[in-house]
## 1
Amino acid sequence: MDSVRVLLSQYLRAAWRRRWLGVMVAWLVCGVGWVGVYLIPNQYESSARLFVDADAVLTPLLRGIAADSAATSQLEILQRTLLSRPNMEKLISKTDLDLTLNTPSDRERLIGRLASEIKVTPQTKNLFSISFRDKSPKLAHDVVQTLLTIFVESATGGSRTDMENAKRFLERQVQSYEQQLRAAEKRRAEFRSRYMDILPADGNPNVPALEGARSQVAQLDGRLQDAIIARDALKQELENTPSLIAVDSGDNYAQFGGGGGSTAPLPKTRLQEAEEGLAMLLLKATENHPDVIAQRRMIEALRKDRMLGGGGQGAGKPAAKPGEPVGRTLPNGKRQVPNQVYDQLKVKLIDAETQVTSLQRQRDEAVRVRDKLEKIQREQPGLIAEYENMDRDYSVLRRNYEELLSRLQAANIAQAADTQADKVKLQIIDPPEVPRLPVAPNRMLLVTGVLVAGLAAGFGVTILFSQFDTSFSTVDDLRGLGLPVLGGISVLGLAPLRYRLMAVARFGAAVAVLVCIYGGLLVHILRTSAFI
């Protein structure tokens, strides 16, 4: 610690001996520095703030209906490309800066300077500022104003131009796909009309026609076998059922209303009932209805049975006359009458025969179609594959056409929203103004820095020159050589003290004048900056 204090005292004594050299250097540095600070031209800054946002009401309403123009992403792209070379060319042209250019290199340097000095600073997601500094206040204002104009034009006109281009492209594609789709539909229809029997049905395109025909034959075979079994069972039961049954004469007479002045109605024959049923069906259906056809077949069968003399009243035999006993009389006094169960079974058998005949006809037709399809498939094995390829191409064209048509409608709605409803809002929060006060350089800071640098330079010069001094300032320095020192002579009297005081006063006055000049410069800077 003592060595540091001793070394510091040595430096101070050395600097004091060369104090006027330090004062001269400090004055020189401060003078040159302050003149240089005042020669620096003023820089004026003009700025503007712009608020950009998509319509908070219209955008959610059109989501999923109109084409999303992604206004936020477009504006972000505009912010990043605002300082592009084409925009800088527009800026130079609109602000008349090109009048000051003489060579292409001057234009290149100006474009580089503008791109580096113009600041586009995003403050929030939808708020950003544009600022520019120049020694001309008017030029700074014009540059910012022109950039705002370029940005607004790009944000409004650019999106609409892109939408128009996209719309024209979609219209051309829709027309092209429409022509291709019509040609594909024509080829598909001609091919289908030529091979309608073998091609899959439109209702179930996943099932080939041949497979459907085979499945139909199998189903009809099952239904036909069930109908034949039911018919055979009815035949067996009919054979085991008697057509006539024996009853007492009195019972039969009372049953059918014979004699005694009975008013009971006579029973109708099955033929009459069938004819009445046919008349009722014709009131509700046509001649070609399956029930009408079956009813007519049953009537023909009953008529044939009556002509052949079939047994029983129910088979078509006319009813007994009033007062005449029904049936024939047996030797034991009983009478034989028609069996109603037999008649009902016979009618059911006729229905079963009709169903078997109908199913047999349907099966024969299905077998014919199946055989035809198998023959076509054997002779033309690639026909189904050709149709599948044609149908696949048609499906792709139709899907693309419908997708393009929906995109075109979405583009129309989005264009209407941009042009008629102002979907994107651009609002200038703070318009640019012509600056009246400079923002740079910071002369107060620079003047203070020059003063500090001058004082440091003066002190540094004195220390530097002291390193080249070979004299001894104290007795201890002399003893450091290792030589015997007998003593030192001190200054006596009042003359040296006065000398020292005068030296300190002169040195203080030199430094004070320098500081006063610094204070005067600060006052001048504050006045010119309108702070006082």
## 2
Amino acid sequence: MKMTQQFGRTLREAPADADIASHQLLIRAGYIRRLASGIYAWLPLGQRVLSKVADIVRAEMDASGGQEITLPIAQPLELWARTGRDQTYGPLMFRMEDRKGAGFCLSPTAEEAITAVVAGESLSYRDLPVNLYQINWKYRDELRPRFGLLRAREFLMKDAYSFHVDNDDLSVTYQKMFSAYCRIFDQCSLTYRAVEAQAGEIGGEVNHEFMAAAVVGEDDFVWCRKCDYAANIEAAQRQSVPNSKTQEKVSDPEIVNTPGLTSIDDVAAHLDVGPSDLLKCIAFDIDGDLGLAVIPGDREVNEYALIQALAPRSVRLFDDEDFVAHPDVFKGYLGPDFSGASIVVADSAVAEGTSWITGANAVNQHRLNVCVGRDFLVSKWIDLAVAANGDPCPRCGEPLSVDRGIEIGHVFQLGTKYSEALEANYVDESGTPQPMVMGCYGIGVSRIVSAVVEEHHDENGICWPAALAPYDVHLVVLPGRAKTPEQIALSEEVERAGEELYRVMTEAGISVLFDDRDVSPGVKFADADLLGMPVRLTLGAKGFARGVVERLDRATGEERELALADDILSVALTELRLAILAGAA
């Protein structure tokens, strides 16, 4: 492709709303353009990258036994009502009505649609397992779209769904999909971890997220450098640690004044102690009653662990409206002995025989020397605190690390949640209908593009891995500013040689972006760095006179010269391809 014919311009400045590297660079380089908040057009360069990601995904899905289909983007709301997810998705779902008043939604995901399709096929146990996938657009009305493609309202996703006679059969396909995902992300040159995670609205007990490590990631994940343990921060566990605060004798409680001090840090500073010497008491609603979650002051409550520990009862943390409705519950001054609490759940680090500083259940007051077991009782002990750097790994005991990540894939063992709701049954050997056991496997195809740029860029622009680059080579021809007849003749020779080199490389199967524009060398080099093809070839008047073309590896900055034959057409195409692309993978 010649740049004089290429649609899409580079920009010197990033838009004001682009606050992460991938968003800035994809806009500046002319890969995408914003049409509305969270909605982007893919220009030719961006479309080539998106298609390459999709091709990698498609090849691995096909090789793993998947069969490609296409499901409607517009889905009947009636299907969602049957599973109850029309309510749980709430305003996140784009909704509409047809002219007859029937409700539809723009697909945020496709569990209901695929289950309804499979249910209509009247399958028997002989027809299973089956694994169906699509690469299609999804829509979610995010309240605050941000970070470009990472939190968009329209995004390209590969979603696959498998159907089985039992959990053992599901486990086989689940492992195949897990392995296929690893191969996909390896080919995309992403640094990633597969982590245990919460299933969220989709459901299922067994699931794994694939997290691409990134400073701008929206999710924290915990992992062990010693063993293979990794988990989403919500699902992460840690080994219980013996509490070092245990004392043989604890003094009697003592009230201290803490006027206007409601935060742990402020109280700790006022009393000249560390946050870990205080107890944090978090109020929560449990089936309409008040509960307390108690953890050391330097930790945060893991809401999901609390919910799981108290299931099937309904649990949610207090918000400002709850405190208004309960004026006797003093926010910032709540203690674990509050008489109105129906249940007290404490982290395992809050051990019997330890003393703490807590709220005194009175405004502007805290208490010293509050002892677990003497001054308050715990109804239930659980690992309640969010895992932190240095906590012991639950498997091997080595220190855990906490990093930020971008979710690029998620696999689930769904069970029969959808098949039961939508009557997707198979007929077993005895002729009896049985609900199909389902698996679900999603990859954010458009999100991968952004994740790759986050990992592979520098201060000058994008550094595409060879497998995803829109073109293999960026050819820059610099004929020079000719004034004398000799210079004019050399300039014309360089231009002809550039055209020939472009043609020969294309015939050799090398995809080339040819900068044939009449602009300065500085502009050409800046755009080449910004666009990020793996290899840049520069053919200038000086190099041509010496019979060489300069090769630059975009990622490493390594430079070397390649010899030009007297007649470019005489260069063996295989040799040319190897010389140009060597080291670009």
## 3
Amino acid sequence: MRLTLCLSLALLAASTASAAPRSLLDAQVAPSSAQVAHARAADGLTVTVQPGDEGYPGVTLTPASGQTWDLAAYGHVAASVRNLGAKPVTVCLRVDDNGDWKANPWNAENLYLQPGATGVVKVIFGHSFGHKPAYKLNAAAVTKLLLFAGKVKDAPAVFRVESLAADGAAGEKPPVDPKSVRVVPPGGVLLSAKEGVAALVETRDAAAAWSGSASNGTLRVTLAAGKREGRVALKPPAGRWNLRAGNEARVTLRNDGPAALTVNLTLESNGGPTDSFTATLAPGARQETVVPFLRDQLWDGEEKKSGTRFTSETAAGVTLILRRDAAEGEAALVVERVAVATPPPQAPAWLGQRPPVEGEWRLTFRDEFDGDAVDTNKWSFYGENYWDKVTHFSKETTFVKDGMAHLRLMKRRGHHNDDPARKESDYATGFLESYGKFTQRYGYFEARMKLPTAPGLWPAFWMMPERGGDGPQWQRSDTKNGGMEFDIMEHLTRWGVNRFNIATHWDGYGKEHKSNGSHAVYYTPDKDGFVTSGLLWTPGELVFYCQGREIGRWKNERIMSVPGHIMFTLPAGGWDNDWLDDARLPDDFLIDYVRVWQRADLAGGGAGAPR
């Protein structure tokens, strides 16, 4: 059992003997500026920060020997800190090693303290800011420790470091939050007589009993005496189920009693429930009921609660509500099997051949990637990276091969845009945009793509404004003044290849920023594992498509009215993703084709003319 194994390993790690704690308060102390003062006493090291402009005022501690600390026998450094000031303070503890400064060779954590409060800030080696995986610190060569606050504006910030020590076993891992556990059912099977995962059962006005074990058995549910309705919920033993391997659940039920039954089925998740589906069962009848993850009510930009809410990687349970016509007599239901699945792909004949609606359409842009290099008359593979701090764009990670454009993310240190004058980072990634080469106002935009699967990747097919002229790109692509960002297909690999989101953003990315969209669009990849996404953009209206099926629309006067250019990006991270796993890299985002059509009545001159 994967869950049991993970918990056992966590307990084993916790029980591993560690060296005796080593105090580090005997270090040399240096203030970051004249804004900071410090004093030693028997009760610890007191740091006073006067109001000023310094962004990170504090102190730096270095080994008294003048060399480095060898903390290889330990798993973390922790500081006990007391806020002696009159206002709340955030204290950051940072641990640095002797690595290249360009690689940010440190781990850090923050501690927020109310006046008079005491707390402990602990930096686990190899983790930062919430104990998330980060820079792999060389604990054998720690060069310095930093303790600092944020910018101090009004009253002085005063905190006392009452203890500072290395402790814990080497290789220490952060504790596992039970809520964060994700149970992946083997083969997508949650319950069956032959295979499944351990499950908990909650009932109301019903009784439930396993035939077999809670991991390999069927579940018999009976209504309580005198009850016409009862409820049973099948839940993971800890955390949530990760059902991202499919896009629907199939539940096999059998009526094991003499009375007819109706059963309503719903899947619950952190994001929200699926639609509810009903099975009607005569005595002795068996039926498989399909519960799609995608809601029947598609996203409508004017309806805040429209679109799918169910998030398959955080499935909280399967709920069944049983009903019978009369309260007398036995009522029994056997849950024989619960599994996730993916239905066969389906696509209309028009997909890839023309827009989804009638009209006088003309193909205005096309790239089938049939050559052996990126067509630089259509695309740029250099640009600015606004989305993460760990990747850089490189010509070597954007290439054409076997009739596909490849955007590759790989572990390779280098300079952004292959320019020695630009910043370096540890990962290279691909990038394509038609900025300055092709832009169009209105029309139908479509691409066929295969998504990567390595953890922590963020592929997207999207559009940004392009007003033309001689101004800087940030000005020409401003989402204010009629501009807008269109996310036609945006995916985080944590979700699995059956899901992506669509979105729009406008009025900049600051305080006035606005957005809407649907964060859980489920689909079936085609026979080759590809998804074809499209956007029909007409004056005042957007209609999104996936595999030739409409998945959402928004009709509003604010829809972008200036030309837009096309982008394909593959940064790391995103708002809801896993961390990169070097063992799963390199991985590629494939683009089979890009095709754009324009309708004759929308192709008038001016800034909106396609070019």
## 4
Amino acid sequence: MAAGARHAWRVAAGILVTRVLGYVRERVFAHYFGNSTTADAFRAALRIPNVIRNLLGEGTLSASFIPVYAALHGRGDRAAARAVAGAVLGLLLVATGLLALLGIAAAPAVTTAVAAGFDAPTRRLTIGLVRILFPMTGLMVVSGWCLGVLNTHRRFFLPYAAPALWNVAGIVAMVAAATWLVTPALPIDQRLHRLALALAWGTVVGAVLQVAVQLPSCWRLVGSGMSLRPTLSHPGTRDVLRAWAPVVLGAGVAQISGVIDTQLGSFAGAGGVASLGYAQLVQTLPISLFGVSVAAASLPALSEDADAAGAEALRARLAAGFRRIAFFVVPSAFAFVALGPVIVALLFQTGRFGTNDTHLVGAVLAAYGIGLLGSASAKLLASGFYALRDTRTPVRISIVSLVVSTGCAIALIRPLGPVGIALGASTGGVLNLVLQLATLDRRTGQILTALERRYLATAGAAALAAAAAGVATATVAAATGPVPRGLLAVGVFGAVYLGAALLLRHPEAQALWTRRR
């Protein structure tokens, strides 16, 4: 368990580097674009090629590639592991190359389908941005292959820190374009369009840098002589593809959910898609920092437990991972619900992003907070199924959750706008959590024992006290600016939560305090 925690902290450290720079990138984006229709266009354009990235990249590839590659490597069969790694990479390059060409050609039809609510100028800009961004998908999928190789060899920091270069490239592109390509004499729409095109090209350059920094380490770890011939001759490659197909289907459900959110957001008026995008960026910080980090560090060990030690060891590792996720994500959810506008003002209120935008995005963030624990723990619980060589059950659960969340979003969008879309997503996230836990309980034994439920209640009680303290602090500091007010409220929230969790003897709080000392 100690090694798993150490690996999870390395993943979290890499994600933290990326997310901090990602926040800087998004604050620069908010300063220049605000909640404008150009921001809507860029968010929608980035969503479309990201569907392929998420279908074929790290989220799905790691679930099918790591167990096979790790098993071959663990048995000492380095030649077979090298052959499987090379063949999988070759197949990825062929598939993503063809899909990128198809995406560039079909950009008008795809944009119309995904963002049907956009007006004609916004749709034209989105089509142009999609054509620039689509080649990025192949590079991001290669980055997912790098993550699989590096994680198998217990190299956890680099693959999660590498996307920081993607963020840096975007920041440089926006600042450079605002300095040299945009003049005050131009109409505001033309200025924003030029900035959006520059950001799209900078994003592609960032993807190149993200892959380039990882490939040398992967080449050394896999070994010399790796062939990139896209062949299915090795049984291990066929095993990867057989496991990959249902995982891709499950990820496809999640991507369909994101596309539906974008499509519904395009009907929510100007700024609908952009407001969802800003809130999702904040929401994904605890999901990536804690949910993804624990799941990524646990998957190789979960696979070993399922093969060697049986259901009891698998259950214990899942319980420990869930407790670790909940300790950090439960307070994040309370903070989003109680302090949504305060957090949004702290992060984004600058330039063209004004007070009205802050209130709207803050309400969307609060709605996402309701389902945060379900979203953050989904990858860990799905990894439990993958370790049991069951990639179909998470797909079925995801489909049920998607149907429910979409129905709720459609019902709520008219009265609540983008907030209703977020509430629908949260409903699906909670349902996904309940169904995954219930199914795993039948397979491995009860994951949330009485002790684990007590720890969950402890985290909830501490988070409730912290939320009350944070709201009181924000109220008292209402006369200050958004940055000092936000820093003060969030700082008090964090201090009260950690103090209350220590008083209630939560094991994760005690471990964190010991590590700090």
